[in-house]
Amino acid sequence: MYIIIAILIFGLLIATHELGHFTVAKLCGVKVTEFAVGMGPALWKKEKGETLYALRLLPIGGYCAMEEDEESEDPRAFTNQAWWKRMLILVAGAAMNFLTGLIILLFIVQGSGAFMTPTITGFFEGCPYEGEMGLMEGDEFYKIDGQRVYFSSNIGFLLGRGADEIYDIELLRDGEKVKLNDYKLSQLEYEIDGKTEMKYGLYFGVKEEGVFANAKYAFNASKDFVRMVWMGLSDLVTGAVGLKELSGPVGIVEFISDVGEASETSVDAAYSISYLAAFIAINLAVMNMLPIPALDGGRILLLLITAAVEGISKKKLNPKYEGYIHAAGLVLLLGLMAFVMINDVYKLFV
User: Fold this and answer.
1) Which of 121, 168, 187, 338 would bridge with 198, disulfide CB 3.0–4.6 Å?
2) How crowded is the C-beta side of 179, counted as CA atoms within 13 Å?
3) Structural domains present in the chain
4) Which positions are annotated as active-site residues?
């Protein structure tokens, strides 16, 4: 059941992306020949005006088919629109994914009762970091090594990325910013309920929920998700993680299924899976805006370059060259997707 739910979530998020393209294309007066939810054979379809609306068998995405023939004489074709209209249409897919993630987070936080804050409310007995030259009760973690702290959970995550346990920490203390440069902060051994555990020795506060607090929490969580994606990409580029650690649709579906099955109750499962759905939605938004040919971000980059060159030279560039670049990018992306999928399937059996 959780596998089916995961597949539906993944498919709906892709369909939502296409809905963003569709909505803005319609608003810009661009001709849309078909909008489909799902792929494969049509279960239901209806033509309204110039657009065919379809619900298809396989719940693995969807598509928004616009008139994109470079040689089309139709003034309402996508390729015959002003560059800014085309850019808005291309951006709309990622924007809809981000908005979807934000809305999911807003629903999740409703009724949560309270949120953990990055404000220190106390110290474990014997904690060496308490003092005027270090941390004090009431201090709010603001930044760690230049990275903004939104929640108490960010603190352990950001501190865990430092290999030398030396950090530049920025605090909010009595309404003013206090900097602790080259401050050593590491986990120490503490006795908790008869067990020895590694902790930083800090207690953090709780903030009651409210309409404004919920909205702020959801928006900050969205920004935190964006940062996590960028950090993951940075780790990939620097070699901190390898390609084998990447996961595609197969790995994501398996992970969502595992999270659902590991949950103690159906309510816990719904909460955890919804949280993952929000992260995946925002992940899709960021990834689609990367300036890589064949992705929306790559198309936007080449669109802007083309518009600038044509504006300066007063000559229209041959669109076939842009097509060649996107075709090459698509081949590389398909190769990467195939590698990731094979690796995900291999992980299922080892």
Assistant:
1) 187
2) 5
3) 2-109+278-348 (no CATH), 114-208 (2.30.42.10)
4) 18
